[in-house]
Structure formats: structure tokens, C-alpha cells
Amino acid sequence: MKIAIIGAAGRAGSRIQAELLRRGHSVTAIVRDPTKVAAAPGLTVKAGDANDAGALAPLLAGHDAVVSAVMFLMGDADSLIGAVKASGVPRYLVVGGAGSLEVAPGVRLIDTPEFPDLYKAEASKGAEFLDRLKAEPDLNWTFLSPSAEFVLGERTGKFRLGDDALLVDGAGRSWISYEDFAVALVDEIETPKQERKRFTVGY
Asked: Which pTM value belongs to this model?
């Protein structure tokens, strides 16, 4: 498949890129600074701005799917969604956040007293982005939320999937590595099971 990644130089984007290439897919890495992405077989690197829908759409055209790995505070939902729709690409997958996941029915993680103030602005933007996607009548989107702790780690290929509830392991920890998050996302690209919905991944 031909996959475009917006924000391929970041922690999540770079691991998704590596996982796609590992599985033999063709990847177009779209980044502000192409020098930050190392050359690799099957990889094309292009300069692009997540907030310039007019310039972004032609870079996305012709791909089987687009992955957005841009921090929500750094990207505009209307620009990104508009560019994907204008490009004609049939599938849009978003690296989401954990803040909008529920810790109890109707109670989001971001609304709990323990949620760090440092991450509230980004988490709020992520929740708004998800609501924006849910309002799209035609776009085939998928929003993958990590667990509360999104950390550098290993690719184990062993994890659990969930829907809107925060996943917590037997020790009470909610976490996932960037590497296993990438496995879950690429699995979904290859075998779609979560179209037009949000899901989550954790140990």
C-alpha cells in the first residue's frame, strides 16, 4: 500500500513509518524539515505544512491512506481534514490522545483531578479533534488513542485493544510504547476493523 504520514519526524510518526516500511509498504513522509528524516528503501520525503490545506492536498493525493501524527496544538483540524478530503484519499487515521478516554462512564481522563495541567491544552485539542471527526458525514476516519503513558520502549506485538475506556494493566498502570502503538495502527491500516470510530491500545 501507499501511505502518507503527516508529521513523520515525531516520536509516533517515525515509529509508524518504520513499521510500515518493515512490512513492505511505500511511505511518503511529510514533514516541515525533510532533513530530519533519514533516507530508506520505500520512503519518499516531502516538505509540507500541516496547516496549509491547499499545499498539503496534492502531497496526499494518490495514496491509499493518510496518517496524521501531528500534535494537536501544532495542527488545525479543519486544515488537516480539509486537505484529506480534497486529496481524494479513501482513509484517514489519526494518532490520538488519551485525555478523551473514559475512566468511568461519562468521566474522561482529562476531567479527573489527577490529570496534569501540563497536558491539558493538548488533550483538550485532541478531544475537540475527535468531536470534529465524528461530525464528518462522509470521511472514513479512525482515531487511535494511546494509553495514559505513551513511552519510548520496545516492539513486543503484545497488547490489548479497547474502545472508549482507558486500558489499565494488572498493576494499575495505563501505558503503551510508541513501537507497539505503531503495530496496532498499521494492523488497522492493513485490516480495517475500526472505521469511523475511536479505539485505544494498551498493555
From this structure: 0.97
